[in-house]
Amino acid sequence: MLPILFLVALLFFPSSQAADFCVAKLKGAGNPSGYACRNPAIVTVDDFVFKGLGVAGNTTNIISAAVTPAFVQQFPGVNGLGLSTARLDLAPGGVIPMHTHPAASEILFVVTGKITAGFISSSANMVYVKTLNKGDVMIFPQGLLHFQINAGGTAAVAVVSFNSPEPGLQITDFALFGNSLPSKLVEKTTFLDDAQVKKLKGVLGGTG
Ligand SMILES: *[C@@H]1O[C@H](CO)[C@@H](O)[C@H](O)[C@H]1NC(C)=O
């Protein structure tokens, strides 16, 4: 009798069923473990498809490069799945300057062109740098400073993937000089002189 009651209860109250996915409800605060789930009844296949990476990013900028993210903010379907992706476009001479993704490791696949990429270890500042060709893959461990430079005379494209729906992106030069920290403090913390700091703040949009 009891087992039958239990089965009936399971049939009518399947409340402990595992959720297959958790498409992000972006309104409301996210936190390190993700966003609230959209009601699965209104989720469609389009929540699992992102079309934005078919278009080249606009590289008319100071770095002659563009990052087009498909992180949880742009692609709510990745919420809770521990992954996301992005497209890199590097015009000739382009660079994704030294940067970190605080929350994720990265794997980069070169689709077209030639890219010199590298990262620096946190222990002993070891440098790992390589020029990559079409089809090559390189990994960048979580949190480490890394960069990508177009090493050819033609446009380069890469697809990168992350083991987080929200890897974060902090470009070191902008963090150091594109801010409002008074120049005196920037000079002290970077060992650069006043003229260098003022110049970099000017170029990178800093104040103070
Ligand atoms: C690319 O960005 C530049 C600089 O912001 C802008 O002037 C230009 O119109 C943009 N091009 C396209 C195709 O959006």
Strand-helix topology:
Blueprint (H helix, E strand, L loop, with lengths): L1 H11 L52 E6 L13 E7 L4 E6 L5 E7 L2 E6 L6 E6 L4 E4 L5 E5 L5 E7 L7 E2 H6 L5 H8 L3 H11 L4
Antiparallel strand pairs: 1-2, 2-9, 3-8, 3-10, 4-7, 4-9, 5-6, 5-8
Helix pairs in contact: 3-4
Bound molecules: 2-acetamido-2-deoxy-beta-D-glucopyranose (NAG).
Family: Belongs to the germin family.
GO cellular component, one term: extracellular matrix
Keywords: Apoplast, Disulfide bond, Glycoprotein, Manganese, Metal-binding, Receptor, Secreted, Signal
Kindly describe this structure.
With 208 residues, this protein is an alpha+beta fold. It folds into 2 domains: 55-168, Sandwich (Jelly Rolls), CATH 2.60.120; 173-204, no CATH class. The chain has 4 helices and 10 strands; from the N terminus they run αββββββββββααα. The chain has helices at residues 2-12, 172-177, 183-190, 194-204, and strands at 65-70, 84-90, 95-100, 106-112, 115-120, 127-132, 137-140, 146-150, 156-162, 170-171. The strands form 2 sheets. A 5-stranded antiparallel sheet has the order 1-2-9-4-7, with no helix packed on it. A hairpin with a 6-residue loop joins strand 5 and strand 6 (127-132). It starts with a helix and ends with a helix. The model has no long low-confidence stretch (mean pLDDT 92). The protein binds 2-acetamido-2-deoxy-beta-D-glucopyranose (NAG). Residues 58, 60 line the site of 2-acetamido-2-deoxy-beta-D-glucopyranose.
